[in-house]
Design brief:
By secondary structure, this protein is of the alpha+beta class. It has eight helices and four strands. β3 and β4 form a beta hairpin. The protein is globular, with a radius of gyration of 17 Å. The two termini are 30 Å apart. The structure holds glutathione. Glutathione binds next to α1 and α4.
Length: 224
């Protein structure tokens, strides 16, 4: 199948978010696995795609994109159906939550797993802060997401929740979403999608990637 998109990815939450959106939009794409074990994200070839040396990057007909939130919004605007349109009243809140995921939730998650990249990061504090952010999302983002139907908000949040649940090794936080039933319901909704089922096969995510996540067994590469 001819494709306009190439996703440079690793089996991580940010790549999964973009891949989920590509699947949700039913777009043809191919993938290029970035080998994190050899720090492929810092190699000149990859830096020419994303000078930040961070994954993912998406090659589009209009050029290469990086930053998960920007990629998701661009895909939604270009193809429609997974985010409120420019003139839709619900776009105001949806945009606010999208930027919250990119600017608040995602960096907090990162500071828990990559404290060396954040000058004053404290993984334990990050764990508590993530729980607070989940409380906030449960009360305010979840009702919005329920009303919107499946959007890029789900594509972004679900992989991050998954990541929080399966990588507690050094500093256990939580292993299920019992405390956040509305977030759990959003995970279940996403799990019923064809997009998610296709992704489960492509990345070896198991039968319940968001409600009962397990460590992946990715056929295309090693999960780090
Ligand atoms: N702000 C970036 C963050 C991307 C990011 O941190 N990616 C991680 C994987 S989830 C990564 O590339 N880690 C490798 C590294 O830090 O060298 C985005 O939204 O895309």
């Amino acid at each position: 199948m001819s494709t306009n998109y190439r996703l440079h990815y690793a089996p991580d939450n940010a790549s999964l978010a973009v891949r989920l959106a590509l699947e949700e939009l039913d777009l043809p794409y191919d993938t290029a696995l970035v080998d994190r074990s050899t720090r492929g994200q810092k190699a000149p070839a990859y830096l020419s795609l994303n000078p930040n040396g961070l994954i993912p990057a998406l090659e589009t007909p209009d050029g290469v994109m990086f930053e998960t939130g920007a990629i998701l919004l661009w895909l939604a605007d270009r193809h429609g159906g997974v985010f409120p349109a420019h003139d839709a009243p619900r776009r105001t809140r949806a945009l606010s939550w999208l930027f919250w995921l990119a600017n608040t939730y995602h960096p907090t998650l990162k500071s828990r797993f990559y404290p060396d990249q954040f000058p004053h990061a404290d993984p334990n504090r990050a764990r508590m802060r993530l729980a607070e952010l989940n409380d906030l999302a449960e009360a305010h983002l979840a009702p919005e997401a329920e009303a919107l139907g499946v959007t890029i908000l789900d594509c972004y949040l679900m992989p991050m929740l998954r990541w929080s649940m399966i990588y507690p090794a050094a500093d256990p936080a939580w292993t299920d979403l019992t405390r956040w039933p509305r977030l759990a319901a959003l995970c279940a909704r996403m799990e019923g999608r064809t997009s998610t089922r296709r992704l489960c096969v492509a990345e070896g995510l198991g039968a319940h990637p968001f409600t009962r996540p397990e460590h992946p067994n990715p056929p295309e590469g090693v999960a780090l």
